[in-house]
TrEMBL record:
Protein name in the entry: Endosome-lysosome associated apoptosis and autophagy regulator family member 2a
Residues annotated as transmembrane: 893-917
Keyword Nucleotide-binding found: no
Membrane topology: Single-pass type I membrane protein
Top-level division of the source organism's lineage: Eukaryota
Isomerase among keywords: no
Residues of the MRH domain: 639-844
Places the protein is found: Cell membrane
Entry keywords, A to Z: Cell membrane, Disulfide bond, Glycoprotein, Membrane, Signal, Transmembrane, Transmembrane helix
Family that this chain belongs to: Belongs to the ELAPOR family.
Length: 998
């Protein structure tokens, strides 16, 4: 009956995969007898009974009677266990340990009993059968830690524990890849999730570092879930989550002590933990001491369970170093065995250590340092400078030192740099130098194994702007530039990481495989204490060998500008309070440059912005791009949401103010190789706000795990604030998440280049075939942006282009779209293209955009209507005039005027015709008379005739004495030709003397 009661009290439902651990705890207290003791469940008064349970089923005779047990909340101290026979706490023996009221899991040769690894795939995507590929996905034990799966499957590590009192769970983890979602949550025995949402999502850790996560537990059944979900958006394999040292506090008691795992020992009774065996020793499970190895032919690293045989030495067992400068200024190359030395050089086939090289002159000091006839280089005093080869000199009047670091000679490691070696699985490379100086470069060291992280760290306490730019509102406080190359035969990777204000180390950029010699620059937009870290790993596959020791990375130079405690290699001009010699420098007001002639501050011209990197000379004022203007402080160029363009003698004026609020577009869905559904989400800030970047993309997984998110501005990882940004969205129904997840937020546009109708600006071009052709009458207005931050795939940074297209059918803010050929918004990963169609992208209306239509004249009234030209390709601007009404007549006034003028002209022509006809008839009559009266005998003498016609006083008048009749005319015609007849004509003269012809 008692056995049935105990089994009934721990009966499990379907969701409690890990409650088998409770059975494990019950069965741990078996002794050499035929029975063992266990407690019943606590009743309502907090009491319980100790009962005896037979080891073999059916053996129910001779068992001790039940006795009253300890209190339900009773527990032993660390290093003790509850001896059930006497119900007293007893110290653990040597070689074992106990947490008292807790349990620890630190041995991962296999998945311990009570843990369950369950693979699920909530969304099979378009393939339908992809869930079958997750059957082999599981958490993999790696000895000292557990490793999550490397594919896209969702795998949960589950453990159930029953607590008699409130407790906690803590674990160490390494989580470096944001392509993996790592969550930890707790359910009760009813499959209801506990209220630990603020601690559900785990923070990222830097490469090679372990983080610790602790969550409080309530009494009763707690089902613990460690769940990872990989999202493969490319060919890059995700880096797994590592988990170790799980410790649970709050269990009522432990009835026996745990033996120390191999490689550890506890030499004293009552231990709460086990110590690690030192190097060249080993131990088995439950050891109270470590056994030394035979150091002649055996070796072992720290925490080893056995000794390994040494092999003969090869070239991979030693490395070269450059010695520091001696008193004579000489250095030489020397060779040393990699420690710990795990090879033998006095056997056949082994190589010996090469002899040291000849002594050579030391390289010069780095800029900003000087050599005062000693073996070391010292920094120049304040307000002085040196190129590293000469003594330090004071800066001339009107100048100030250009503070910073410039490391290009590597004889010794600079004082503000340190190097180390770290391995996630063991500590065999602890104490080694991860990097070694090599004259003109610094290179990665040998390490203990190929998957070690070789760490190089540079600490900058803060940044100090030059005096002349102090107080300006620029966004650049300093920049770091380094030149490097990698030479690899395996899957090596170099990480460049940054830790701001000692919060958390985040990966800025990484490079895989062999990379040619190149330069990388990162700009600091925040004045803070920062640590820059370079981490090099030859391979991420867990292995305890050194096959790729010749895979190296070299850094040739590291330069940091405006470093707070930096030294100066040169001096730059600064503004003077006066032109007197020795005057101190003063800060220039915002937007002012230093005039070369007077060393005085002068304001930049309108439409230019001041380069924060160099403000000496008018050329420091950089012109803004087309369609942009500078703000009051001349720190940035921006668009005020207006644009003007002249085409075919017509000026098009645009007003994009309605499009200034942040626009969003989420394309897709897209699917990974295993069918995981995801979206690309873009936020776009087009114009306005005087250059302020208002588009924000958030990593909500990181936000949920950041307790101090509201107390301090979070940068680089939690969100990005820019003109155009992109996030990857995993929908809530895609992988069983309760809410949609937003991650991998990146900036696509930090700088506004300009707005133009051209397709190319500052080297950024639009492919004309990405979108349909725009209307010929109204061209697209293209907004160009750039993000100068270089990446491994985009050496010149990323570019963003937003094409605004007039589309009257898209009312309001219209519609954003990406190219159909490139659904991710980009075809090459570096230039992102967007099309924004809206009626608000049309030019403002003018009088040329409408025409009038006159109506018919009705009742003496005529209406004139005004209508827009179709299609209407304008917005706002002038309004359409109203209907105009005017009086009208039956016959138009001008028609009457025309008819009158025509009639008058006709009458005039007829009158002139009659007049000239009548005059012509008179002349004809006169001529006829002269002809009829003339004959041969009647001709005047020539002289007399001429005399009559000459002179002014000889004016004469012809007078017809008789008017001839019609009958006379006929008679003269009939007698014409008879020389006998002649009609006399009287010539009337003004003179007294007259001639009469007969």
């Amino acid at each position: 009956t008692t056995n049935m009661y105990i089994i009934a009290t721990i009966s499990l439902n379907q969701c409690n995969f890990g409650l088998l651990s409770v059975l494990k705890e019950i069965c741990q207290a078996k002794g050499n007898r035929d029975y063992y003791f266990e407690y019943t469940e606590c009743d309502s008064t907090g009491s319980r009974w100790r009962v005896a349970i037979p080891n073999k089923e059916g053996s129910c005779t001779g068992l001790p009677d039940p006795v009253s047990g300890t209190e339900c909340t009773f527990s032993c101290a660390a290093g003790e266990f509850l001896e059930m026979s006497s119900q007293q706490c007893t110290q653990c023996a040597a070689g074992t340990y106990s947490l008292g009221s807790g349990i620890r899991f630190d041995e991962w040769d296999d998945i311990p009993a009570g843990f369950t690894s369950l693979a699920t795939y909530m969304d099979s995507g378009p393939g339908g059968d992809e869930a079958l590929s997750c059957n082999n996905s599981t958490w993999v034990p790696q000895g000292n830690y557990l490793e999550s799966n490397r594919d896209e499957c969702t795998v949960s590590l589950i453990y159930a524990v029953h607590l008699k009192k409130q407790g906690s769970v803590s674990f160490e983890y390494q989580y470096v890849d944001n392509n993996v979602f790592f969550e930890f949550f707790i359910q009760n025995d009813q499959c209801q999730e506990m209220d630990t949402s603020d601690q559900k999502w785990i923070k990222l850790t830097s490469n090679g570092e372990w983080g610790t996560h602790t969550v409080n537990l309530k009494s009763g059944t707690n089902i613990l879930y460690w769940r990872t979900t990989g999202i493969l958006l490319g060919s890059k394999i995700v880096k797994p989550v590592l988990l170790k040292n799980i410790q649970i506090e709050g269990v009522a008691y432990t009835s026996e002590c745990f033996p120390c795992k191999p490689g550890t020992f506890s030499k004293k009774p009552g231990s709460s933990s086990c110590d690690i065996c030192p190097r060249n020793t080993h131990s088995g499970k439950g050891a109270s001491s470590c056994t030394p190895c035979n150091e002649e032919n055996e070796y072992s690293s720290e925490g080893s369970a056995e000794c390994k045989e040494k092999t003969f030495c090869t070239e991979k067992d030693y490395f070269q170093i450059h010695t520091p400068c001696d008193s004579d200024g000489k250095t030489q190359i020397m060779y040393r065995w990699i420690e710990p030395k795990i090879c033998m050089e006095n056997v056949t086939g082994a190589v010996t250590l090469p002899p040291s090289g000849e002594k050579k002159p030391c390289p010069p000091c780095n800029p900003g340092f000087y050599n005062n006839d000693t073996a070391t280089c010292s920094p120049c005093p304040p307000d002085t400078y040196s190129d590293g080869t000469k003594a330090c000199q004071e800066c001339p009047a009107g100048t100030e030192p250009a503070l910073g670091y410039e490391y290009k000679w590597w004889n010794v490691l600079p004082a503000n740099m340190k190097t180390s070696c770290f391995n996630v699985g063991n500590s065999k490379c602890d104490g080694m130098n991860g990097w070694e100086v090599a004259g003109d470069h610094i290179r990665s060291g040998a390490g203990g194994s190929d998957n070690d992280y070789l760490i190089l760290n540079l600490h900058v306490p803060g940044f100090k702007l030059p005096t002349s730019v102090t107080g300006t509102t620029g966004s650049e406080f300093g920049r770091i530039t380094f030149v490097f190359e990698t030479i690899c035969s395996a899957d090596c990777e170099l990480y460049f990481m940054m830790d701001v204000n000692r919060k958390s180390t985040n990966v800025v950029e990484s490079w895989e495989g062999t990379k040619e010699k190149q330069s990388y620059t990162h700009i600091m937009t925040k004045n803070a204490s920062v640590s820059y870290t370079w981490a090099f790993q030859r391979t991420n596959q867990a292995q305890d060998t050194r096959k790729f020791v010749n895979d190296i990375v070299k850094i040739y130079s590291i330069t940091v500008t405006n470093a707070q405690d930096g030294v100066a290699s040169s001096c730059h001009a600064c503004a003077l309070m006066s032109q007197q010699s020795g005057s101190s420098c003063i800060p220039c007001p915002a937007g002012h440059y230093i005039d070369k002639d007077t060393n005085q501050c002068k304001e930049c011209p309108p439409g230019t912005y001041l380069s924060m990197h160099q403000i000496y000379g008018k050329e420091a004022c950089i012109p803004c791009g087309p369609g942009s203007k500078s703000n009051k402080d001349h720190t940035v160029c921006f668009s005020d949401c207006t644009f003007t363009h002249t085409v075919e003698n017509q000026t098009l004026t645009y007003d994009f103010s309605q499009l200034s609020p942040v626009g969003s577009i989420m394309n897709g869905p897209s699917f990974t190789s295993k069918g995981t559904k995801y979206y690309h989400f873009f936020n776009i800030s087009l114009c306005g706000y005087e250059g302020k970047k208002v588009a924000v993309c958030t990593d909500n997984v990181t936000d949920l795990s950041s307790k101090d998110l509201q107390n301090e501005s979070v940068d680089f990882v939690n969100f990005v604030e820019t003109f155009i940004c992109q996030s990857t969205i995993i929908p809530s129904d895609g992988r069983g998440f309760r809410t949609a997840l937003s991650s991998q937020s990146i900036s696509l546009a930090d700088t506004f280049l300009g707005a133009t109708i051209e397709t190319t600006l500052n080297g950024v071009s639009i492919k004309t075939d990405l979108f349909p052709e725009p209307p010929k009458k109204i061209p697209d207005v293209n907004f160009f942006y750039r993000s100068p931050q270089a990446t491994s795939s985009c050496e010149k940074g990323r570019n963003g282009i937003i094409s605004l297209r007039c589309n009257p059918k898209k009312s309001g803010r219209g519609e954003l779209s990406v190219p159909s050929k490139c659904p991710a918004g980009t075809c090459d990963g570096c230039t992102f293209n967007f099309l924004w169609e809206s009626a608000e992208a049309c030019p403002m209306c003018t009088e040329m955009d409408y025409h009038e239509i006159e109506g018919a004249c009705k009742g003496g009234v005529q209406d004139t209507e005004y209508v827009w030209n179709e299609p209407k390709l304008c917005t706002k601007g002038v309004s359409l005039p109203g209907t105009k009404t005017s009086p009208c007549e039956a016959i138009d006034f001008w028609l009457k005027v025309g008819a009158g003028i025509g009639a008058f002209t006709a009458v005039l022509l007829i009158s002139l015709t009659c007049y000239f006809w009548k005059k012509n008839k008179k002349l004809e009559y006169k001529y006829s008379r002269l002809v009829m009266t003339a004959n041969k005998e009647c001709e005047l003498p020539a002289a007399d005739s001429c005399a009559i016609m000459e002179g002014e006083d000889n004016e004469e008048e012809v007078v017809y004495s008789n008017k001839p009749s019609l009958l006379g005319k006929l008679k003269s015609i009939a007698t014409k030709g008879n020389g006998d007849n002649c009609e006399s004509v009287q010539l009337k003269s003004s003179k007294n003397e007259r001639w009469v012809w007969g």
